[in-house]
Amino acid sequence: MEYKVVVPPLGESVVEGTIVKWLKNEGDSVKADDPLVEIMTDKINVEIPSPHNGVMKKHLVPPDTVVEIGREIALMEVEGEVTAARTFDTKPESGEERIPQEQKAPEPAGEFIDSAAHHRQEGIHADEEAIETGIKAVQSSPVVRRLAREHFIDLRKVSGTGKGGRVSKQDVIKYIDARHRVDVVKPDFQFPDLEPEEVIPVTGVRKVISEHMVKAAFTIPHVTTFDECDMSRVIAWRRQYVDRIEKEDGIRITFMPFIAKAIIFAAKEFPWINATLEDDVLRVKKYFNIGMAVARENSLIVPVIKHCEQKSLLQIARDMHELAEKANADTLQMDEITGGTISITNAGGMGALSSTPIIAKPQVAILGVHKIVDKPVVRDGEIVIRPILNFGLSFDHRVVDGAYAVRFLRRMIEYLEEPDRWLLGVI
Fold first, then answer.
1. What are the structural domains of the chain?
2. How far is 128 from 147, CA to CA, in rounded Å?
3. Is the pLDDT of residue 283 over 60?
4. pLDDT for 295-319, tens place per residue?
5. Are 362 and 276 a contacting pair, CB within 8 Å?
6. pLDDT per residue over 76-104, tens digit each?
7. Is residue 160 a contact partner of residue 168, using CB atoms and an 8 Å limit?
8. CB neighbours (10 Å) of residue 39?
9. What is the pTM of this model?
10. Are strands 275-278 and 281-285 parallel, antiparallel or unpaired?
11. Residue 395: which residues within 8 A CB-CB, separation 6 or more?
């Protein structure tokens, strides 16, 4: 019987994608779980599998077409009786607690960037219509055309090194680097005559990111609370063991896994911090899927370390390292960027001393981590120098009150300032 292939959900906050290429041609035999089509989102490329055995009957949408979630894109002739397209479970995950929004927060028992991603403004002074004409006139792949549109490049000006003069991704990257390379050594260098401003269309990944940030900023009442943490003991512990751990376990541990563990310990006392708000229902998570913002050249992505509450400090460090490498190589899978319950953004890695991070909807909190700075503080009546880290916790004030958030952050910091009681037990 005939089966309609539709675009499935492609991740949190993703409403559309672009058909990159069909992986099954019309007339091809298809087995269940065979990839049918590759779809590009603002985050990653996804291969959509077939839910049934059958034959690819007809493509309803050609490559390079933007398609919304739920749109019919192909027809298949499948074996047996099928009543509808594949459905997706929207019930709460195991370990969640559903709480109506209007309830009050319980009293505690005893708690890689939303950052401005470094956006290199690259482009050329040319008419947008001419640029699009140049892109379509040159033999290239969808990935190359996407890159050209994002950087406003006329592909007719790029020398192709592929078969038959085909322009490759590396050709475009080389062209981008070359057109902005300046020889600063020559004393007689002069900048060419330029227009007083450069006009760059906000398109592609940057446009989607801007839309998501606006939606989060204007639908979530953000409040950010700040507190300082004395990192002396964590630094001392890391300095003592980091080289040995790297030699024995092959991973150089950073401060981020320590912070992730402190979040988990504190949130067990202040559980509403680790939650999502969807349709006026607060889902308090009993597991910890911690998102880690990673800034790439022209985009931002948040890989998710799943079930951190079940993992050791070293395993969290290993997962963070592997996911960051995959993010930079653009090889993340969809399940590696979805399902987050709370996020961390490390602006301190680029020197920031303070920030007010934007929450990743539908989560209710995000922790901003900043640069560790030596500061004078008073200890036992004396002024001493200590390495101080300034945390900024943004929270959704619809469900988390200020006092609740402040107490969570203070409790998290206490775990970091006195780590000896838990470090040996989580390694």
1. 2-78 (2.40.50.100), 96-118+206-426 (3.30.559.10), 128-199 (4.10.320.10)
2. 15
3. yes
4. 876 677 899 999 999 999 999 999 9
5. yes
6. 998 776 654 444 444 455 566 666 655 54
7. yes
8. 22
9. 0.63
10. antiparallel
11. 222, 223, 224, 225, 273, 359, 364, 365, 405
Cβ contact 66:4 at 8 Å: no
> Which amino acid does the sequence have at 233?
R
Return the structure tokens found at 85: 């397209």
Torsion of CA 261, 414, 419, 350, to 10 degrees: 60
408 half-sphere exposure, CB direction, 13 A CA radius: 28
Say how far residue 14 (Cα) sits from the centre of its chain. 12
Catalytic-role residue among 119, 222, 321, 397: 397
Examine the pLDDT at 181 and tell me if it is beyond 70: no
Residues in a beta bridge with 75: 4, 58
- pLDDT tens digits along 142-153: 778 878 887 778
CB environment 226-250: b (16+ within 10 A), e (fewer) = eeebbbbebbebbeeeeeebeeeee
The question of whether 59 is a catalytic residue gets the answer no
- Res 82: pLDDT: 61
Place of tokens 């995000």: 366
pLDDT of 102: 52
